[in-house]
Amino acid sequence: MTVRVALIQTRTPATHGAALAHITPLIRQAAGEGARLMITPEGTNLLQKDRAKLLPMLASVEADPVVLGLRALANELGIEILIGSVLVKRDDGQCANRAVFIGTGGAILATYDKIHMFDVDLPNGESARESRVYVPGDRAVVVESAVGPLGLTICYDMRFPALYRALATAGAGVIAVPAAFTRPTGEAHWEILLRARAIETGSFVLAAAQGGIHEDGRGTWGRSIAVAPWGQIIGQLDHDEPGVLVVNLDLAQVDIARNAIPALRNARAFTGPAAMPALGAEKAAAE
């Protein structure tokens, strides 16, 4: 079976209204090209790195204006939309970076809270502490979709292969990786990591990205990409401008790749090794 899907590349503004106005024509364009499933990037509802401005704007998933707008659009067009993530308030008043899967009737069918927080200090001096704003999730999610079982991940998750293996062994043959990748890490690692996750799980990997210099001053890499289970690129945008990447997924390729290299079946449990002391610790102890 072949299914037509679209990766929506955005440069999301810093307010809900502007974000919805930005993404709506791109989704309509993709629907006009025959896509049945749309995947949008991380931070689809707004991007604002100033926490003092961001936090008062966050709402629950049910009340978020972009989620409401895209639910109505999914119902109107008869399409599925995976909102790669929205930045929202949880029921307990804390915040989450949450993927939202919307069915063809506009209902929310599944959500996933980003598990791995982007807490890093990059070589160029950039730093990020996502955990200061968002509570990490603790549950992997697979949802039934037009492409069959669809695994949900978000951005920095891609650096943790165990999550992708868990999604694949749970039945996902397609894994979404919506992202807002920084420019230095995108240039160095974006394509390599995504192709690796596809190859090691025998899955399609679909990465819809934010791109360019945003209203809040951040820079994101763009280059949305679709990778087949054997690791070949089947579609890619070569820029960071807003746009639409439509690809056809031949879902039979999942079984072909997994039967050729049955890594999911061949994996074995093992023990150890024991943790090694930090470099120089033994010498320091002896002195």
Could you outline the blueprint of secondary structure elements for this entry?
Elements: E1 2-9, H1 16-32, E2 37-39, H2 51-57, H3 65-77, E3 80-89, E4 95-102, E5 108-113, E6 119-121, E7 127-129, E8 141-145, E9 148-152, H4 161-169, E10 174-176, H5 183-201, E11 204-207, E12 211-213, E13 219-221, E14 225-227, E15 233-236, E16 243-250, H6 252-260, H7 263-266, H8 281-286
Parallel strand pairs: 1-2, 2-3, 9-10, 10-11
Antiparallel strand pairs: 1-16, 3-4, 4-5, 6-7, 8-9, 11-14, 12-13, 14-15
Helix pairs in contact: 1-3
If you had to describe this structure to a student in words, what would you say it looks like?
By secondary structure, the chain is an alpha/beta fold. It has 8 helices and 16 strands. The strands form 4 sheets. The protein has a 6-stranded mixed beta sheet with strand order 5-4-3-2-1-16. Strands 8-9-10-11-14-15 form a 6-stranded mixed beta sheet, with helices on one face. Strands 6-7 form a two-stranded antiparallel sheet. Strand 12 and strand 13 (219-221) form a beta hairpin. The radius of gyration is 19 Å and the shape is globular. The termini are far apart.
Can you tag this structure with a few keywords?
287 residues; alpha/beta; 16 strands; 29% helix; globular
Helix content: 25-40%
User: For the terminal residues, how far apart are their CA atoms?
Assistant: 67 Å
Number of strands: 16
- Rg estimate, integer Å: 19 Å
How would you write the strand order of the largest sheet? 5-4-3-2-1-16
The CATH class: Alpha Beta
